[in-house]
User: Fold this.
Amino acid sequence: ARLSHTRLSGIAKKYWNIYFERQEHTCLKGCLLAETRQEENLCLQVTTHSRLLTSPDVEQLSSDLLLKPENVHCVLLQQFHTEQQFLREVSTFFERQLQSQPKLLVVQCDSG
Assistant:
């Protein structure tokens, strides 16, 4: 609402439409389904104040998105002590299966 009163007022309507009409904001499942319909390879950051996902949540998300459970991996950023450990985990996950299979890597960060 305030964007229209700034130097970016010329593009305010465009971003208003993207945020309020094109993007899904009701739940993670809805967001992922909407985005994956539009993009084949996707890197998506979701910022939320919701609780962190549990193992059953990840299993349900896998089922809802029609992904094989072994192709969905969830990690907590704080579990890694170095950037190298994190990179190794990500690389291992994406190299583990054939490239043609859809995969979902969820990296959670507890800010509290």
Notes: The beta strands are 72-76, 104-108.
